[in-house]
Specification:
Growth Hormone, Chain: A, globular, 2 strands, mainly alpha, 21 helices, two-stranded parallel ribbon
C-alpha cells in the first residue's frame, strides 16, 4: 500500500495491478478503519459548526434582528437557516466536481476551511444594536459560506466512506456519516447544556455566551483540516480519474435520470423528517409545547444520543437483509404515524413523555439516516459519484430540509400549526413511492 491511496476492491489488501505491497487482512482492516476515522472526525466538526446555529438560535435571535415577539425573531433566524441551504446545490456541484476530478481528500479539506470561516464570522459579528442591519448581513454571509461548504461535504464524505469500506460491510461503515452528523448536533447541544447549567446565567448566555460555541467550532475546524491532510485517497477515485470529465457539469443528470430521481425522491422525506425531529424540535418544545429552554436542551441531547447508537445497528442490518426493506419501513411508518405523533407531542406537558415520543420518531427516521449515504453512493459510477450523490441531495435538502423551521413557524404564525404535521407526512409519502419502485441497491451496487 502506498501513502496516497487505499484499495477499495480487494479483500486481500493488494493494490490492483500489483502496485504496492500485499497487506494482511488485519493490516488492510486497520488502514480502512484509520481512513474512516479520519474522514468521520472531520465530518463531525463540519456538522457541529452547522448545527450550532439552530441549537443556539433561541439565544442569539435578538442579537441580529430588531426587537419583536419571539416567534417573529425565530422566523428571521429560520429564514437565514434556509438561506444557508439554498446555496448548498452550488456547493455540491462545484465541490462535487472538484472531488471527482482532483480527489475526495482535496475537496474535503477545502470544505472544512470554508466552514471555519463561517463560524468565525458569526462569532465576532457585532449585534443589531451596534451595527444595525449589517449584523443580519454578516450572519447571512456566514451561513452562505457554511452552506456552500456543507453542500460539497455531504456528497464527498458519503462517497469517501462508501469507497473505503469493505464489500459486505458498506452499510455499516457508511452509516458513520450520520453518526458524525448527529454527533455534531449532539455536541452542540451538550455545549449548550454545559453553558446553561454550569457556567453561565441565562442573561450572560443571551448577551455574549452564545458566541462561545462558534469560537469552538472555528478552532475545531482547524484541527479537522489537519486530520484531513493525512487522509488516504481511495483506489476507486484513482482508477476513475481518466473518466472524470463527465463530472464537469450537470449533464450527468440527463445521462442518469433514474438515479438522480431516486436520490432526490428519497431525500425529500428523509430530510424533512430528520430536521423536524432534530433541528426544529428544540424550538417546537419551547414555542408550542411550552417546556423551558433547559428542558428542551436535555430532551434534545438524550434523544440524539440514542439516535447516534442506532445508526451502525441499522447500517449493519442492511448488509444482511438489504437496504430496501428498511427504507420501506421508514416510509410506511413516517407517512401514517407522523401526524398522530406530532399531535400527541404538542399536547403533552411532561418532558419525559415528550422525550419518549420523539425517540419513537427517531427510531423510525433511522431507517433513512443510516442507509442514505450508501444507497445513494451505490447508484453511481466512481467518476461522477461525489456530484451524483451530492447535487440531487442538495437540491432536495435546500428546498425541503432547509425550510422545515420556516414552514413550521409560518403555519404557527397564521394559526394553522397542524397543517405542518400533514406537510411532513406528505413529504415522507413521496419517498415511500420511491422506495417501493426502486431496485435493491446492494445487489446492483456500482461501487
Amino acid at each position: 500500500m502506498n501513502d496516497t491511496s487505499l484499495a477499495a476492491s480487494g479483500e486481500s489488501g493488494a493494490l490492483p495491478g500489483g502496485a504496492g505491497p500485499v497487506l494482511t487482512t488485519a493490516q488492510d482492516t486497520r488502514r480502512r478503519l484509520t481512513a474512516i476515522f479520519g474522514g468521520s472526525i472531520g465530518n463531525l466538526i463540519e456538522w457541529y459548526d452547522w448545527y450550532v446555529y439552530s441549537t443556539f438560535s433561541l439565544y442569539f435571535a435578538r442579537a441580529f434582528f430588531p426587537a419583536g415577539d419571539q416567534t417573529a425573531q425565530l422566523l428571521n433566524t429560520a429564514a437565514v437557516f434556509a438561506a444557508g441551504f439554498l446555496i448548498r446545490p452550488i456547493g455540491s456541484w462545484l465541490l462535487g466536481r472538484y472531488a471527482d476530478r482532483f480527489g475526495r481528500k482535496a475537496s474535503l479539506q477545502f470544505s472544512i476551511m470554508l466552514m471555519c470561516a463561517g463560524s468565525l464570522i458569526i462569532a465576532v459579528t457585532p449585534t443589531y444594536a451596534t451595527i444595525g442591519n449589517w449584523a443580519a448581513f454578516w450572519l447571512v454571509f456566514a451561513r452562505i459560506l457554511q452552506g456552500f461548504s456543507l453542500g460539497g461535504e455531504y456528497g464527498t464524505s458519503a462517497t469517501y466512506l462508501s469507497e473505503v469500506a469493505t464489500p459486505g460491510r458498506r452499510g455499516f461503515y457508511s452509516s458513520f456519516q450520520y453518526v458524525t452528523l448527529i454527533s455534531g448536533q449532539l455536541i452542540a447541544t451538550a455545549i449548550l447544556a454545559v453553558l446553561q447549567f454550569l457556567l453561565l446565567t441565562p442573561h450572560q448566555l443571551e448577551e455574549w455566551g452564545w458566541r462561545v460555541p462558534f469560537v469552538i467550532g472555528a478552532l475545531g475546524a482547524i484541527c479537522g483540516l489537519y486530520l484531513r491532510r493525512n487522509l488516504v485517497e481511495t483506489e476507486a477515485f484513482l482508477k476513475s480519474k481518466s473518466k472524470s470529465r463527465e463530472a464537469g457539469g450537470v449533464g450527468f443528470m440527463m445521462k442518469h435520470p433514474r438515479e438522480v430521481l431516486i436520490v432526490a425522491g428519497m431525500t425529500i422525506g428523509g430530510t424533512v423528517a430528520f430536521y423536524t425531529y432534530t433541528a426544529y424540535m428544540q424550538q417546537f418544545l419551547v414555542n408550542t409545547v411550552g417546556l423551558t429552554k433547559s428542558q428542551s436542551t436535555l430532551i434534545s441531547a438524550s434523544t440524539l444520543f440514542v439516535l447516534v447508537l442506532l445508526q451502525p445497528v441499522l447500517g449493519a442490518l442492511s448488509d444482511r437483509i438489504g437496504r430496501r426493506p428498511i427504507l420501506i419501513t421508514f416510509g410506511v411508518l413516517g407517512t401514517f404515524g407522523n401526524v398522530p405523533l406530532l399531535m400527541q407531542i404538542s399536547k403533552t406537558h411532561d418532558p419525559v413523555a415528550a422525550a419518549l415520543l420523539i425517540l419513537l420518531a427517531l427510531v423510525v427516521i433511522s431507517g433513512y439516516t443510516a442507509l442514505g449515504a450508501i444507497v445513494k453512493a451505490e447508484l453511481f459510477p466512481a467518476e461522477i459519484r461525489s456530484i451524483g450523490v451530492g447535487l440531487p441531495s442538495a437540491i432536495a435538502i435546500s428546498i425541503f430540509g432547509g425550510t422545515v423551521g420556516y414552514v413550521a413557524l409560518w403555519f404557527k404564525q397564521i394559526g394553522h400549526e397542524p397543517w405542518f404535521y400533514w406537510y411532513v407526512s406528505g413529504c415522507v409519502a413521496i419517498s415511500l413511492v420511491v422506495f417501493l419502485s426502486m431496485r435493491e441497491s446492494s445487489r446492483t451496487s456500482r461501487i
